[in-house]
Each structure stands twice: as C-alpha cells, then as structure tokens.
Design brief:
9-stranded mixed sheet, alpha+beta
C-alpha cells in the first residue's frame, strides 16, 4: 500500500474529483460507460446517506478512492431491521494494486461497528470481499426482493442481533434515480468524454481483468494503454485470438494486470468493440 494514503471524510470541495475518480473506476465495467458517478451524487442528496461512516482516500494530494454507505433494511413481514449498505467502492484505476480499497473497507467497518450498526450488506465481487470477513447472504437466510440470493450478495455481521435477521434486503428508494438517463447525460458533460467499449451483448462484468488498447508490439511484448499508463504485457498461455489471430497496434484487448514488482501482465483475450462495427 502507498505510504501516504489518508482515509478521511469527504468534503464539498472533493465532490467533482470524487465523481470523476468514480466514473473512471467503473468505466466500461458493467456496460459501455457507467452510472456510478451519478450514483454518488444521488447518495449525497439522499436522506438515507450515512456520511458518518463513508470515506474517501487521498494520496499525492488527490482523491484516489472512495466508499459510500446508505441505510438499508432486512424485512420479514412486519419486522424491519436497519443495516448499512456498502456501495459504491471506487479506486482510481491508475492507483490499483496499492491496497486503497482494503484501507477504505477496514476503516469504515470499524466506524460502522463503533456507530452500533448491526451489519453491512452489499452486492459485489464474490472473489474479493470474503477476505474482509464478508459472507454470503444466503448463509443467513437473506435474499433479494424476489427471494433470490446469489454469491454476489454478501453481508458482514457486526452484532449478535444480525445473525437473527431473516428476510429480504431493501435498499434506499433513492437508488431508483441512479439510472436516470437525463441526469447521467447532464453530469457526464462535466467530465472528459471517455471512449465507450462494448465487448459482448447483454451484461458485462469486467473486474478481475481490464480493457486496454495495444499501442505497440516488439519482441513479444505488447505495450497496452490503460488510461494514462502503458502496461507491458505478454500473451497468456494458451492465448487464442481466433480468426483474427494475435493482437496488433490498435487492438482492443482484455488483460490481467499483475501489480507485483517484476510481475508479468498477460493479455487473455482479443476483443472487438461492438459500438464501432
């Protein structure tokens, strides 16, 4: 982790930078573009926002991460138990691999526990959150409103009482505003116009790997442009580019970024941006 990361409360003068960082963090992850920069604006205006346990991370004098919490409920008939919902959790993409998200989670979990919050729920990457103690909601008899529970639905008990909760979780109704296309268009005008990429029909979820563009190739090393960074990559073992063969300069690729010093990053897939024909 970076030595100079500061986890602190968000201030009004941080808002633009935090929204931009969040936009970059989620860009093209679930679908072309993203809505999470609008989400945090909706959260801040919500009566269910929990600013007392939400935090941003600062390094090198700029915002490099943020996590937000809102009130949520586990409902079973007439019984309604208040908990906290985590999300979004964002990290500036050029600062990935520095332990920023972990620092935000650890600090805010401590704050939530001190505030007497019974537990935390989230919908997120099931391969990531368990290392911070999160468990499947299904193990506690907690589902979505339709009675479904998936590995992505996780919870962190912070009290003995939480373990007695059963039912379905209900998030703040303000989240219904997040997908407002007019609001997203308005807020997006305040930020740089980034390229949208669509690599498959339907739902995308590109989190363990990344999307980049090959800038040059020399001696089997592919320099992949990822935001402002150039990441040297090699082809993954067993790479099969299909009919299109190997990547060339200008190719869109999916790659596994190895953040360890001396680690080798690997291109795992040659992709085609469906928005560009």
């Amino acid at each position: 982790m970076l030595a100079d990361v500061i986890v602190r409360e968000e201030r009004a003068e941080d808002y633009h930078d935090t929204e931009l960082m969040t936009m970059r963090s989620f860009w093209n992850k679930y679908h072309p573009g993203c809505t999470e920069h609008n989400m945090i604006r909706v959260i801040r205006a919500s009566g269910d926002y929990l600013p007392e346990i939400s935090r941003v991370a600062e390094a090198d004098g700029k915002i490099v991460g943020a996590v937000y919490y809102t009130r949520a409920w586990i409902v079973d008939g007439d019984r309604r138990h208040e908990v906290a919902m985590l999300g979004p959790l964002a990290v500036e993409p050029t600062y990935e691999g520095n332990g920023i998200s972990g620092a935000l989670i650890r600090e805010t979990v401590k704050l939530a526990e001190a505030a007497g919050i019974a537990g935390i729920i989230l919908a997120g990457e099931p391969g990531y959150y368990p290392k911070y103690g999160f468990l499947r909601c299904a193990d506690f008899g907690i589902t979505d409103g339709d009675g479904n529970s998936y590995d992505a639905y996780m919870c962190l008990p912070l009290s003995d009482g939480f373990r007695t909760f059963r039912g379905h979780f209900v998030e703040s109704t303000d989240f219904e505003k997040v997908g407002d296309e007019d609001a997203i268009e308005r807020i997006s005008r305040e930020f740089p116009a980034y390229r949208k990429v669509k690599v498959q029909e339907g739902f995308m979820q590109i989190f363990r790997e990344h999307l980049g563009v090959v800038e040059s190739v020399k001696d089997g090393v592919y320099e992949v442009r990822y935001w402002e960074l150039l990441i040297p990559c090699r082809l993954a073992d067993g790479f099969d580019g299909g009919a299109e063969g190997k990547p060339v300069a200008g190719s869109d690729v999916q790659f596994d970024w190895n953040h360890k010093p001396g680690g080798v990053s690997r291109i795992t897939r040659l992709v085609r941006n469906l928005l560009e024909g």
